[in-house]
Give the backbone structure.
Amino acid sequence: MKKRLLTVLAAGVPLAAAVYLPTASAEPQTTSTATPSTCATPSVKAPAGTKVEAVTAVRQPGGTIHGTGVQQGTADNVPAFCDVTVTLTHPGVGDHAKVQTWLPETGWNGRFQALGGSAFLAGDNGVGMANAVKAGYAATTTDAGVGDALDVSWVLNSKGQVNNALLKNFASRSQHEAAVVGKDVVDGIYGKRAAYSYFTGCSTGGRQGYMEAQQYPDDFDGILAEAPGINWDEFEPATLWPQVVMNNEKTYPTGCELDAFTNAAVKACDKLDGATDGLVNDPSRCDFDPRTLIGTKVVCNGQELTITAADATVVRKIWDGPRTTSGKKLWAGVPIGADLKGLAFSEPDPNGDIKGKPFQVPQYWVQYFLKKDPSFDVSKITYSQFTELFRQSQAEYDKVIGTDDPDLSGFRNSGGKLITWHGQADQFIPTQGTVQYRKQVEQELGGSKKVNDFYRVFLSPNTSHCGLNGIDGSADGLAALTNWVEHGKAPKTLPATLTNSQGEQVNRDLCAYPEVSSYNGEGDTSLASSFRCVAPSRH
């Protein structure tokens, strides 16, 4: 599935790929004869524990669909569709979660697709839904009764406590309820149920896909969970670590200097796969020492800067990842090769002093969910306080939104298939979290070979957060997933178009984890045929 990433400037900080716009590119392989005779309001049965408050059905002419919220975006040439909105509530809670299902007026391919969200947005903003309809899918999404991608106004109640009902909606149950309602609406409008059901999502949406596989294994035949925000309770505070480092070291490298470290690391580690092609195929082997750049001159906006030992210390700590004051590793750092400016952003204040500008998602996580104080100044967090916040996040939220249960036996037994791709230059969600989870599933379910029967992970070189959705290249994960689910053809590789460090597009077959890509020794390095998948080197 190709998706388009939209960079949003919010409060001067790129919201970048944590907010993305999903589309659906898989060509329909079959066309259902079922078409809605009229866009009439269907009868909808309330999912367990809910009450249906309202149901509306409106025929939409299609054309150009404009995305809502900070993501915006557009989808053109959308065919006419029936827009059914079901509002659910959990009695006694006072929530109002809207489930939207869009059903193409003609050309339905017989499939159902639910779409996930991004950042604090629980569902799609309309562009992904529109593109799914263009591809012939009946598409469903939910707002879970919460707000837009950077809207956390719902988190604290009037008593200053976390609204646990809405948090539960956002974390887990609303996606399941949307699946139940969406399928019911499809049946009510078309007069038949979908032949196959799929879930697609990146970032927050990726986490939601894993939550479905873990807690509601019968909801979907296939799940495409990209750059997933699993281990949410850990990676969220961990992504504030670069700001904590800069504030405590009182050193704020410029964007030009940060790029110099990244470019030097990529150059040093590029050749480790046997080819100098602008891609680092196995970052785990990259041990570039940032101290080698001390004294290097960098020209930034016409000004010559000299990289200092303090700059190198900051970058080393960011790459290494959060640790306790005694040196115990808490979580993975920003991957070598990823854009350090995503989380280590800084800018002058009105007085001209350089200050860190944190990425809003982890900032809000700390302020609203941990401190329960929107005015809390995250720039004052010490190293020891960071450890306390990290541990608090684990203790309070792992069971609620951690989404790291390795027991996928229910999903496996239901016949479900799960595909994940994750960029190895993901600046917001460390790739290592996905790798660690995959290893835990293997340990739980009897090894790599057994897990590969239903769950495969593909790591993508030089790819940023959700970057294969159109920023750093593309890969049609949805096509691979439908082929696996409907024809039993498990993807040995995931064909992709990547962008190397020189900005050139190259073709690669992403290898199924744990294998990595290695140059054959001859042939054009822009072609996938010049590489093969091999076991990673031990070092």
Q: What stands out?
A: Confidence is low (pLDDT under 50) at residues 1-29. The longest strand covers residues 51-60. The radius of gyration is 23 Å. Residues 164-190 form the longest helix (27 residues).
